[in-house]
Amino acid sequence: MQVIDWSLYVITDRAAAGGRALPDVVRAAVEGGATVIQLRDKEATTRDLIELGRALLEVTLPAGVPLIVNDRVDVALAIDAQGVHVGVDDMPVALARRLLGPDRLLGYSPDSPAGARQGQQEGADYLGIGDVFGTPSKADAGAPIGLAGLAAAISAVSIPVVAIGGITPANAADAIRAGAAGVAVISAVVGAGDPAAAALRLRNAVVVGRHVVEAGRATEG
Questions:
Q1: Among 8, 64, 55, which Cα is nearest to 188's?
Q2: Which of 27, 111, 167, 196 has its CA 20 to 30 A from that of 190?
Q3: Residue 40 annotated among the catalytic residues of the structure
């Protein structure tokens, strides 16, 4: 399995893009510092997802950025994407892993620390944990879990955790200090007037958080 930089995980959303072509938005996000892209569209037809996924791969592959498909294992396999991300209402992690094989990335969004442990045991490579700070992007996200909830999930597993939900340049470093490997956003980049600049601000905040963590480790050592 390749080493993945989870620093800035950007999730697509047609509505947030405001009519702009998603490949153009993703290209700008990657130029600004996005390290992982997830194709997420719950309303699109299978054919549309395949066409869009192929268009996104034309952006992400040359940049060395993994493309993850939300939920749809069949679409990920059809376009040869780098992985799939599933949630508690999607295909079970163990089944997704069996279909994907050992070499593609598999992410999971659990709803509890126990679910996080189970996801890891069933073959997830990383977890998306949230809603951390409160998000306008998902109406069904539930109450924010805060940094304490994020830290509890992180402590339950040994695989990377990406924090999601209300992430901004002002709080991204806090998520990293809580132990997250990176942060995931939708509207903060896809909905930004300048996605490249928005991605750069978030990526810089992640770097700041890592510097604080590293400084703390050096002091303890």
A1: 8
A2: 111
A3: yes
Q: Which of 7, 27, 40, 72 is catalytic?
A: 40
Distance in angstroms (rounded) separating the CA atoms of residues 37 and 66: 6
Q: What angle do CA 185, 186, 191 make, to 5 degrees?
A: 125
Q: Give how many domains the chain has, as a whole number.
A: 1
Instruction: Find the catalytic residue in 14, 138, 177, 210.
Output: 138
Name the active-site residue from 27, 97, 104, 109. 109
Per-residue pLDDT of the chain (221 residues; tens, 9 = 90+): 578 999 999 999 999 999 999 999 999 999 999 999 999 999 999 999 999 999 999 999 999 999 999 999 999 999 999 999 999 999 999 999 999 999 999 999 999 999 999 999 999 999 999 999 997 766 665 789 999 999 999 999 999 999 999 999 999 999 999 999 999 999 999 999 999 999 999 999 999 999 999 888 888 76
Question: For residue 2, is it within any domain?
Answer: no
138 assigned to active site: yes
Residues ≥6 apart with Cβ < 8 Å to 158: 120
